[in-house]
Amino acid sequence: MIPTAKLRIAARERRRELARSCPDFALRIAGYASGLPIPPGAKVASFMALPDEADPKLLAETLVKKGCEICFPRVHQKAQPLQFHVPAASEHMARGAFGVLEPLPHWPASTPDVVLVPLLAFDADGYRLGYGGGYYDRTLELLHASHPVIAIGIAFAGQEMDNVQRHPGDQPLDMLVTEAGIRPFDHHTPGTSR
Length: 194
What we know:
By secondary structure, the protein is an alpha/beta fold. It has one domain: 3-Layer(aba) Sandwich (Rossmann fold), CATH 3.40.50. 23% of the residues lie in helices and 20% in strands. It has helices at residues 4-21, 25-30, 57-65, 135-146, and strands at 43-45, 69-74, 83-85, 94-95, 101-102, 109-110, 114-117, 121-122, 128-129, 150-154, 175-178, 181-184. An eight-stranded mixed sheet has the order 6-3-2-1-7-10-11-12. A two-stranded antiparallel ribbon has the order 4-5. The longest helix is centred in the N-terminal third of the chain and has 18 residues, at 4-21.
């Protein structure tokens, strides 16, 4: 079994190559907005993409035109679920502890119905290789406990790997949006609900 740290290094390099080969990624996934099960008025958590990360910016802008409210995640405390805030007019995001642009803590809080999730890699069952902090897994677990939430991974199609190592608490994605289209995952088994 390859150590997770080595997998992350390889996945970052692979993603860098994919980003170079698909410069119109953001525009392409925005075209799939109407095919997503996101009703007008839904609260959607997006994220500010890092360099070479699959970028949901234009998809989020398209969802705003559809009547959705967009919020962004903020790390407020280490090893805790993320908090989400709606951008305030005429104010700018600030770099957080991990160098990611985040909303300011005084911006209006939001509890999303849909979470767009960044990742390093994913597998055919909808499990993702994240960055190692567990923030999205903790957040999705907390949100699922309070109301139905759709977790949508944002990735290049080439980020798929054979099998993501799973750990207790890992939260699978409901679907994925790549430049190739929308890919749903079915995690329901008879007699259970998610």
